[in-house]
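I'd like us to work through together how a protein chain folds, taking it slowly. To get us started, please write out a protein record for me. Label the sequence line and the structure token line clearly, so we can match residues to local backbone shapes. Once you have written the record down, we can walk along the chain together.
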Amino acid sequence: MDKSQYYQIPNRMKIAYIYDVIYPYVKGGAERSFWELAKRLSKRNEVHLFGMKSWEGPADFIKEGVHIHGIGKSRKLYSKSGIRNIREALSFSLSILPALFKERFDLIDCNAFPYLPYFPVKLYSLWSKTALVITWQEVWDRYWYGYAGCLKGLIGRIIERMVIITSGYIIAHSQKTKDALYKCGFRGKGVKIIWHGVGLEQIQDIPPAEDKADLIFAGRLIKDKNVDMLITALALIKKELPDISCFIIGEGPQKEKLISQSQGLGLKGQVHFKGFMEYEHIISQMKSAKIFVFPSTREGFGMVALEAMAAGLPVITVEHPMNSSTELIQEGINGVICQPDAKELASNILSLLKDRDTLNKLSRGARRSTQTLDWDKIAVITEDFYKEAIRERC
């Protein structure tokens, strides 16, 4: 029997988002996704966003219709080695349960990573009979060993598996993530693929920056992003295009090493490290470039690539089992997928820069590819999935 026949979904749902970091106080793709959904769904529902208090001022306030709750003591997200701080995740996990018991919700959407908060949230959902959806950016599985070493990696992998096999409803941001969830033992109610969205109207209104470059990269400067591969490719390209230029936007533990690499390869003055930039400035810089180069080998989705496409840039990314941004790319339509090799990356960049007609064609295709992914449309799809989870729960 269809449970909707005897259970009425409330016209105004009470929704809680659980993630230890909140946008814009901490910036990243997952943080931005929750925020973009929260502020849109708050127009029709009561939406609460729980995270570590990483801002000055009151812990609880309303912003753009969203009830924001800062809980626990804010700690550094990453250790000196670039690994997620386990103490931060544990501190948030211990703080979330008392905060949730102060409220009653129709549905909770909890970000899977960093895993530990899931367990008290699951306990609360069972006690209160609240529908629970888990949002997965990516599944690490064996990647844990390379990330944290053998012992810590094994512990991380076990905890990840525990979250997977005890989850009921899941939102995955890519087909790769969905496949990995089933491979790792998911047997719950179902996995719904819902891509990240993009603010098309906002991007359209942002003017291009005055300073221009041929290429642009934006993202955290960590090993998996492979910015060193891009810099090596630039040195190869320079042999044919001496004036090649590139913006690199972002901060991270590899920044100084990448600056030294670019200087050592004779690219000083051609590779411009822009550091951290606000969203509007990133889009503005994208609009003043020709190609977005994204050699990352680990992406749960690659929201920045989608934003580059909305800004009219074709995307060059690399083939890898953990790079879900390849799902955004249609060869010959909006970008290029190549092997994670500096020579092949350089060859594909050169090919596009020398062929203006193809570059313009891919630019137009990139814009068209994002038209169905406006955040307003993604919010409606997400809301419908929430209602399905509530029906099944009740």
